[in-house]
Amino acid sequence: MQAKVQQIIEHRWFEYFIIAVILFSAVLIGLETSEDFLQTYEAFLYWGNHIVLGIFIVEAALKMYAVAPRLKLYFNDGWNLFDFSIIILALIPSTGNFAMVARTARLLRVLRLISAIPELRLIVATLMRSIPSMGNIMLLMGVIFYIYAVAGQQLFHIHDPVHWGNLGVSLLTLFRIVTLEDWTDVMYTAMEMHPLSWIYFVSFVVMGTFVIINLFIAVVLNNLEEAKQESLRELRTPPTADHLMDELVKTQQALEDLHNRLADYEDDRRNLQR
User: CA 203 from chain center: how many Å?
Assistant: First the structure.
């Protein structure tokens, strides 16, 4: 029986079904934002959310049963823990003081789309691996921001106190510039006092936008390649003793099922001959 359950949860169509349920859950959450729809179809939304939660519970139960009695194999998987936590949060009553928490928990169900699609799991794993390297880039960017903020405050605070009045405002102005949102207006205002101010702004845009963003992209691409290689290594990793025992038990169960089917077939054949 465990072998059949394992085949079901590993089947491609089962994965498609769970993805469809997650998308349906996302639609229900979006419909709840409409007061008119909520009042008219409150029962539909109520039962729809309960059906989605029930399907998620059945999915988790099937995955646990497939690895029973070694449930640690289920909880050792971080994505299974993520899905299980969402189910637990979704069981919070949606009335009283916990109403807001329950609505937020239902919103988290959309995040299950990440765990359901292998490609999205790879992207998330890549981002997690990139955090340490991004920390170094953020430190470099912080140093650049600080230097340019102090320089900008010293150069432009008299002529343009709105954007360069103090260090904090200067940092916010630089953040606006690095997003390329109307940064030329700030530059032209500064150029009214210093015609060569464009050197300051253009150098910061080149340094803060193009160089730093390219560094971020390089880090992410490098870690994406490493994450792919790690996934390939996991597929090539020799099976452990526990895994071999599980496969042996599943094979024995499958052989017993086949033996029982053959015995039933022989009995039916003999009865027909009589």
Answer: 36
